[in-house]
Amino acid sequence: MNRLIVVSNRLPFALDSTGEDLWTVTPAAGGLVSAVEPVLRERGGIWIGWPGIAGNIPKRPFAEATRDAGYKVVPVALSETERDEFYYGYSNEVIWPLFHDLQNFCSFDPAFWETYKTVNVRYADAIADCAHADDFIWVHDYHLMYAGQALRERSVRAALTFFLHIPFPPYDIFSKLPQQQRLLRALLQFDFLGFQTRRDLRNFVGCVRRVMMEAKAVARRDLQLVRFEKREIRLGHFPIGIDFDSFEKGATSEVVVQRSQQLRANFPGCQLVLGVDRLDYSKGIPERLRAYRDALERHPELRGRVVLIQVVVPSRVEIPRYHEFKQRIDRLVGDINGRFSTSNWLPVQYHFRSLGREDLLAHYRGCDIAFVTPLKDGMNLVAKEYCACRIDENGVLILSHFAGAAEQLKTGALLVNPYDVEEVADTILKAFRMTDADRTARMKRMRRVVREENVFRWVDSFLSAGSQLARRVPSRQRNLRRRIPSM
Ligand code: ADQ
């Protein structure tokens, strides 16, 4: 078994200073950590990433935080300017909005690209310092797309693989990126590229065909190859899943059952509609609120009989656009509650905070309808977590066509275009009126998919596709590697 080196922007925990030599360690949440952490814990390896504080990394708290990890943790340090220009700047004000088809939200500041490269080179140095020829290097996500190129320049001989957690946009949108060619060239330095869905893979190949004239894309049955600079890069789609059993088991625990009953008891006679999202304009929260308002306006039978529980986790609030976006949500919630509430019914319950795991599970278990309507999303784990927690096989999922999860859950979910306020409003009514038999039939189908295509299968299929490559790479491609000039 090759040694695994996982590389991501953030480590699976964040350090934070709470005063003179006082530190807190907060475990990171989210899909990447819950997918990859158990694998590294079980088989050992190395995790390289940033511990979430700008400036020097304090030795003692870092050592304490990583002592029992079960794998080696290698920190990468970022200065405040690097955090601002690499993380907030290029990653989250250029790539994130562009790859979610929201090019008007981009700030194409040339300084961001320079810092993005500098930081990616630092990650590559950290990898090169500890990598051996037969290691399997797995780089994650949009923050580190340039790392492949920096690794090639360092003649790292291990298998270089990359997985993109967010969507890959179509050419018409990607072509707005000033660094389009440099970025594709950098990505093509990896040996193996994984995407969430067929759509993303197709978009990537389309962009390679249009932008990289010297690359040749070849489709062979279920394998997609790109030939570039005398190398073969393999591509595939690997929809990320969740730890189904752990959500299902958690949802049966006594405390979760009690809290979900409590939640329901707070809103007697109402169906509960749940939105759970990070604060992000890609998640379509204002559009969802407008659709809910339209549903209450045009379908009076819903008034007093549904409650929307919208939970928003604070995220990237340092970026001004996120701050403005929160204010828009606040105003819409105020408008809906001001217009429709009665002495004993408040149509929107809005929480701006992160939920603990038991509360999150209690919300999944206790709510009749999940309202997951991103404008675009790589996958969307909330949709899958909701299904895993519906052990009663009841519950309706309203899901955006533009979430990666739609490809797998379309046989059970009510799919909507999140921009079509009227369609979404009518779908709320449809969900509200749906019979138990229909709910069960749909939920069964979705649970089967989420159970089978779980996170362990995701890791296994990526690693096994990649390990075939690790066996292939030494003989065929390593000889062909040559130094590639920096762009
Ligand atoms: P995210 O954009 O973070 O992930 P998502 O897949 O929905 O989006 O994951 C969010 C996670 O945060 C879920 O596990 C959810 O349980 C948790 N969460 C959300 N709101 C919460 C709350 N209020 N309290 C507590 N927890 C909350 C990126 C991509 C996605 C892709 C994942 C994994 O943008 O498209 O699915 O990576 O690849």
Explain the overall architecture:
- There is one protein chain.
- The chain has 18 helices and 17 strands.
- 46% of the residues lie in helices and 19% in strands.
- The strands form three sheets. The chain has a nine-stranded mixed sheet, with helices on both faces. Strands 14-13-12-15-16-17 form a six-stranded parallel sheet, with helices on both faces. Strands 2-3 form a two-stranded antiparallel ribbon.
- The model is unreliable at 473-487 (pLDDT under 50).
- A hairpin with a 2-residue loop joins β9 (216-220) and β10 (223-228).
- The chain has two domains: 4-240 and 457-478, 3-Layer(aba) Sandwich (Rossmann fold), CATH 3.40.50; 244-452, Glycogen Phosphorylase B (Rossmann fold), CATH 3.40.50.
- α1 crosses α18, α4 crosses α5 and α10 packs across α13 (357-366).
- The chain has helices at 31-43, 59-66, 80-99, 110-130, 147-153, 171-174, 180-187, 198-211, 244-252, 254-265, 285-298, 320-340, 357-366, 381-389, 406-409, 421-433, 436-452, 455-476; strands at 4-10, 13-19, 22-27, 46-50, 72-75, 136-140, 159-163, 192-195, 216-220, 223-228, 231-237, 271-278, 306-313, 348-352, 369-372, 396-400, 414-416.
- It is an alpha/beta fold.
- Bound molecules: adenosine-5'-diphosphate-glucose.
- Residues 29-32, 165-166, 240, 276-278, 311, 313, 354-355, 360, 377-382, 385 line the site of adenosine-5'-diphosphate-glucose.
